């Protein structure tokens, strides 16, 4: 992916690309040398920091929950580097995969649903 493609992505597409990359790095960290494992875990942590920075206070409860998940995963990535804990890496891979899958499903649903207009944003949830 080149820089032009990144700049042309909508925010939700960029988030999806970052989540795909997160899954990739945790997957690669599971079965690589210590040096490669550490590199993949550091890159995963950098992605989590960027995902965390992309959250904003107006995102409501989902943003708050993602905030907690991203912080947990970033801290756990550092712990996995220090302890070389493969079980922790497997847990992080599972969490990243779940986030990626959920995000992909949400994007697919958003394509098929009409966007409500007007009113309070919370009134539109059922």
UniProtKB/TrEMBL annotation:
Alphabetical keyword list: Bacterial flagellum biogenesis, Cell projection, Chaperone, Cilium, Cytoplasm, Flagellum
Subcellular location per the Swiss-Prot or TrEMBL entry: Cytoplasm, Cytosol
Major localisation: cytoplasm
Highest taxon, organism lineage: Bacteria
Pfam families referenced in this protein's UniProt entry, alphabetically: FliS
Family: Belongs to the FliS family.
Listed name of the protein: Flagellar protein FliS
Record organism: Exiguobacterium profundum
């Amino acid at each position: 992916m080149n820089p032009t493609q990144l700049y042309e992505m909508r925010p939700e597409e960029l988030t999806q690309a970052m989540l795909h990359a997160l899954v990739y790095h945790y997957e690669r960290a599971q079965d690589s040398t210590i040096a490669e494992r550490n590199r993949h875990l550091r890159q995963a942590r950098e992605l989590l920091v960027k995902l965390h920075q992309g959250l904003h206070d107006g995102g409501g409860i989902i943003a708050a929950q993602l905030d907690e998940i991203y912080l947990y995963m970033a801290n756990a990535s550092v712990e996995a580097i220090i302890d070389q804990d493969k079980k922790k890496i497997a847990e992080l891979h599972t969490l990243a995969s779940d986030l990626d899958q959920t995000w992909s499903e949400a994007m697919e649903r958003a394509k098929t649903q009409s966007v409500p207009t007007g009113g309070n944003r919370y009134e539109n949830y059922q």
